[in-house]
Amino acid sequence: MSYTVLARKYRSQTFDDVIGQDPIAQTLKNAIKTDRVAHAYLFTGTRGVGKTTMARILAKALNCLAVDEPTTEPCCKCDSCLAVNTGDDIDVIEIDGASNNRVDEIRELRENAIYRPARSRFKIYIIDEVHMLTVSAFNALLKTLEEPPSHIKFIFATTEPNKVIATIQSRCQRFDFSNIGPTAIAEQLKSILKQEKIKYEDDLILPLAKMANGSMRDGLSLLDRLISAGVEPLSASLLEQYLGCPNSEKIWNLIEKIGDSDAAGTLSAIEDLIGTGLGEVQIVDSLIDYMRDLMVVKSTGADSKLLILTDQQRKRAGELAEKFDVAALIYNIATLQKLRWVVRNSDTSRALLEAALLRFALSEHFLNVDELLSQLKGGSPATTGKKKVTRIVNSPPADVHQATSTESTDAQSIKDNWQDALRLIKTKLGPGTNGLLSSAVPVRFDQGILTLKFDMSTKVDIFEKSGRKEQIEALLSKEFSTPVKLKLETAAGGQTQPESGAIPPKTGSQRRNEIANDPAVKTVLMGLDAIITGIEEAEE
What we know:
Elements: H1 6-9, H2 22-33, E1 40-44, H3 51-63, H4 79-86, E2 92-96, H5 103-112, E3 123-128, H6 135-146, E4 152-158, H7 166-169, E5 173-176, H8 182-195, H9 202-211, H10 216-228, H11 236-242, H12 248-259, H13 263-275, H14 280-300, H15 311-321, H16 326-344, H17 349-362, H18 369-376, H19 398-401, H20 407-429, H21 431-437, E6 441-446, E7 449-454, H22 457-466, H23 468-480, E8 485-490, H24 510-516, H25 519-527
Parallel strand pairs: 1-4, 1-5, 2-3, 3-4, 7-8
Antiparallel strand pairs: 6-7
Helix pairs in contact: 3-4, 5-6, 8-9, 9-10, 12-13, 13-17, 14-15, 14-16, 16-17, 18-25, 20-21, 20-23
């Protein structure tokens, strides 16, 4: 006896058997119960979600010979039901729209439609991939479709409803079949494996269900391939060996290296994946899926029902999610989606992939608006690592807090604690701000004004224009428990006080100066611990 593939062997036989399309099944059952069955239906949806199966079930329900009228529960044993299941019923004609798409064939259908069914209540035409019909063929069908004989029913199925002309769609009741969720596919796969008495490991089911991409038929076809390997028990490792599924641990390792800003480790992890036979596009697709899971973890927690993961995978995702923030993950996913199309059509796909992932690894984490505004007000930036904060001396000398005329004493007190202040600034405000201050020397502290001398006037300009001056003033005021204002001087001894509206160096444009001093731009500069290297205005 020839082998019957699982997709055919376990094809749904009644409305209640259909997986993942309960609303449509219930609607059709209600139509039969109330005698409101339409003369034409259009079933749309991706491959393998049950369109043709539902059409056959509807045909059996309308023509079942075990009862005297249409029923919601066909017997699946009478001659009509059995013939519909095999596609051999004389009154239920299945037509492939791809190979019977010419106008002459549709005219023949129309001519035969006038004859009553041979033994059943209705003559039913099921046209699969109906979008493949030519415009002339569609037009030839219009009149019959609009005013069909009472004994005729049409059921059209298509994966591309946009290609079905509007005049056809307007004459049909349309049902859109949704993709079947991984959980529902997983339950069906487990049920079939138990009926087939095939041993399997639990960690196999969810990854296999996700590989089906919402198609029950694809899921069963993949399961057939695994069973054909002849290895029991079926395990997740077979997915990589026989179906080309990326090794989840290798993908997690790549993401971990990116999160750790490990450039060498990132390149090594890419090489490890490519060495298993994966293409660059497959790696990009896997990264999108896995980073999506991290985004969900960061947004809703590791226990979210939005995650289709095993307990072990949830734990792993929760650990890796701590290395990223939501904004960074959103940016990564969007960038990877754009990269996917470039990589697919490039002769240098590996170099493009490596460059993009190194860009992720070497870039600083993105900050959200709340964090930026918090820093603007003197708060500390969010950080994924744990750093030891070295504070300024617990009780600064009284001459630092009180205005006196002995400038040398004040300056000496500040100098004694200046390295502690720099460490605090680096911790609180970032290495960029600390780097700009590294060449500054405190020379006076008089009446709450701290005078700093810089070796270059450009660094003074950067402080004035980026908003860092106000940020440092707020931080020092808090640490010294007294209001502190900064006065900046260059090595030549002259005070640098940029005039309001002054043109920034090297721009020569009043408009660019306004942009550089815009409060929103300053907020971003402080939040990302960045400086402006160039300004480009997009043309409207």
